[in-house]
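Dear colleague,

Thank you for sharing your sequence with our group. We've completed the structure prediction you requested, and as agreed, I am returning the results in plain text so they can be pasted directly into your records. Please verify that the sequence below matches your submission; if there's any discrepancy, let me know and we will rerun it promptly.
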Amino acid sequence: MTNSHKRWLTILSLVAIPALLYAVLAERASWRPRIWHVTLGHIQSVAFSPDGKLLAVGVFLSRQQPGAVFLWNIANSRVERHLDVPTAPVQTVAFAPTGQQLAASTNDEILLWDTASGRRQGALPGRELLGFTTDRQTGLACVQLMRRNVPPAIETWATRPPRKLRERLMALPPYLSLSGSLALPQWLLHGNPIVLEGLPLVTRYIAATAPDGQATAVAVETLPSRSRREAVLFDPAPAPSQGSTRRAIAPRQLTPPATPAFSFQSQYLVRAIAFASDSKVVAVAGQSVQLYDAPTGAFKFLCAASEQPITLAFAPDGNTLAGSCHSQILLWNPHTGQVLRTLDTAPPAPPHLRNEATALAFSPDGATLAAGYGNGTLKLWRIK
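Please find the predicted structure tokens below.
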């Protein structure tokens, strides 16, 4: 070996080895979460804004101040807004597709805010927030919710800003107190409610709507036992008949796996339901995490190591499913059910002291996973 070759080999080793070490350390560092804390709060739900710059965190604080929504700035790790919910704990939070509005559900109503100003935009009668949609014809932001009727019904509420009135009010002096309240948008029932027929009398339910609006999955707790839930799938609602004002659809049972131990018809509660972004796969967290074909309801896979699941979240590209299971956060391949990675494992603890992730959400680009915990801890992982 000539001196020239030795020189180049030395230079290559001096460059390659540090680069390799940097790559290894950077990969490890990327899987270390950023950790924030909500003082004296039990995190119930998390949601990213459409641009990925804000993270909404719905919490249960105390009996004196039941609920609140925190808006975190992802870039500087600071709380930009603290939205009080004095009546009940926050169950679910969701951003409008434009990011201009934020919704939060409680036990009795759906609350709405303007994201930029934090001003309350009203309250809608509902118990379960299904999320926002955009009307294809008018482009209006719509909120989908479930009413606790007998039987339950899915309603869509649209915002209709009074533009001409708003333009006139903007010209009025700011000291006129009515100008601000009258300039708020109106929320009107948009279309006919979709009645979910065939469900028994329920005390609680969990619902999720496919992104394309072609299916709705509902898990209900039946009476009189109040100890069992079953998941059912609803097809798209037909148009109402002439002279009718309501659309009614009957449930279609999901086909359980062949193993009886993993059937929905068991003593295990269904804690979470999630649809993939393409609306073709629905994941149900019961005794384990089960994946179903949404168009047919046929069972597909049982996710590995998915005992005692609590919450689920699909990545935007539909190629990753995250779940909080038995004091750890797992990432699965939804096409095979195999574990891709284990992100967090809590130390062993008694059941009443477990600190498990109670809320999960992916950022719009799928690069960040947010997890909220019962002790008020919020963790963010860079997974891409």
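Summary note from our side: The chain has a mean pLDDT of 75.

Kind regards,
the structure core
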